[in-house]
Structures are given as structure tokens and as C-alpha cells.
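Page 42, continued from yesterday. The earlier attempt failed because a stray header line got pasted into the input along with the sequence. Redoing it now with the clean sequence only.
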Amino acid sequence: MFKNQLLGVPAVMQQDRWHGISAAPGCRFEPRSSIDYFPAPQPPAMSDPITLNVGGKLYTTSLATLTSFPDSMLGAMFSGKMPTKRDSQGNCFIDRDGKVFRYILNFLRTSHLDLPEDFQEMGLLRREADFYQVQPLIEALQEKEVELSKAEKNAMLNITLNQRVQTVHFTVREAPQIYSLSSSSMEVFNANIFSTSCLFLKLLGSKLFYCSNGNLSSITSHLQDPNHLTLDWVANVEGLPEEEYTKQNLKRLWVVPANKQINSFQVFVEEVLKIALSDGFCIDSSHPHAVDFMNNKIIRLIRYR
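This time it went through. C-alpha cells are written below.
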């Protein structure tokens, strides 16, 4: 096998197939293994200005702006630590929401979060900020949501809780090609949440997450409308293999950043109460009675401002 040091394309020719081919002056052929590859052409270096195709929308900016937060995903992409994809026009392509990227790009430019007064896509922007891992932007969004929540006036929060025991059937692999049928009882929880403050439900969605297939997903995707949220989840089931949770669509509920699984209504009420009290809510003294608060099926909190 021979390798022409000047070429940049794969070569698999055997030695006797080079007959009649002469090397360029100053070049020589070196023997290699029977199959070899020449170095692939290197992609062009990043240079200003840079045009990005984000979900079909084009943005033009500088390399300095994109790498202004080195620990972010964008900082890694445009400093050469992560590969970048390109569209047919040679623009860097990112398969994310193009509309809200303008706010992320402006934050990279100014380190300041600027949103219109009637901005209605805070949840989407927060998810995009999480994807790009711009930590100062994530913190700025959290502060903004707290600020917006405090700006709201009186609000009510009503939670209806239901619980049932259900039998789940599943197979257990005992040996290669040997399976046995098993069953176990599991607790199934349901919470119907209504709040006149849609911002509070978004705040709740930033703390509570479903665990499915080993991944966490925000409960905000289950909002029926801006004021209603329905949650269904299960406690851990004894003996149930992890893959069966996914196969039978059994979701577990976690609270972050404590990374704590919610296996009972008592834990659920405790965690929701912490979030609600921090947002200015208090227990409605007329319903339920304070003594029975943790065991009641209907819980009401109010906020006066």
C-alpha cells in the first residue's frame, strides 16, 4: 500500500495499481498497510462574523459574543471543544427554537435579561437556557419569575388529592430465556391543582419533575391551561424492574434541587407548601382546619397583597 502525502482523499489502491503514475517532484510514495486513509480536510476555522441557523431563523454575531460564557454549551461549541453542524449554506446549525434565541443572544451580548412586558413564553425560554447551559441567564430567569410573581396581587391555590392502590403485573427474567410472571401492589397518586396565579404554577413547574426512562421532565408540559395542572404519579413498586416503569408508563415524581423522590401525599404537601409559602401564600384558616392540614384531601391556600 502506498500513500501520496499531498492528497486528502481515501486511497485503497494496491501497489501494482500505481503503474504509470509518477510522483510530483519532491514527493515520494511510502508503503503503508493494505488499506489506508489520507487525512480528511479540516473544517474552516471560525471567523467573524458568524451566522447561525437556529431552527430555521438566521442570526449573525461575533465569535467573542458566542464564547462570552466559556462554560456554556455555546462557549464549548465555538471554542472547538464540541463539534458543530452546518446547513447547506455553510451556516452553523442548531436544532432549537429560533424565536426565543434572540433573547439568549442578547444576553450573551449584554449580560442583561431584556424581555417585553407582555412576554408569555417564560417556560420555553427557561428550557432553552437550560439547554444552552448559560448559568447566569438561568439565574436571571429565576429572579425574573420571582419578581413577576411578587408583582401579582391576591391569589388562591386549591389542591385536590386522590389516592388508590392498584395491582401491577410484570415479568421478571430469572435466567436467559426464562421469565416468570409477577405482580405487586402500588400506590397511585393524583393531584388536581388550580391557581389564579399562572406564574405560581410555572414556579411549581420549575421545582417538580417527572422521572421516566431515567430522565427528568418538567411538569409544566402537563398544564391543561395556564391555571390548571393535573399530576399523576406512583410510588416505588417493590420488585418492579426499572424498565417496567417505562414499559407501563409509570411516572415517579421528584422535587429539585433537593433531588428528593415524592413517595407519599405527606411529602408532596410538604414540598408544595414550602414553595407556596415562599411565594407569599398562607393557609386558609377556614379550609382545612390547621390540625388536619397534612391529612386533608382538599387544601386551599390564599395570598393577600
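Notes: DSSP finds eight helices and 16 strands in the chain.
Reminder to self: strip header lines before submitting.
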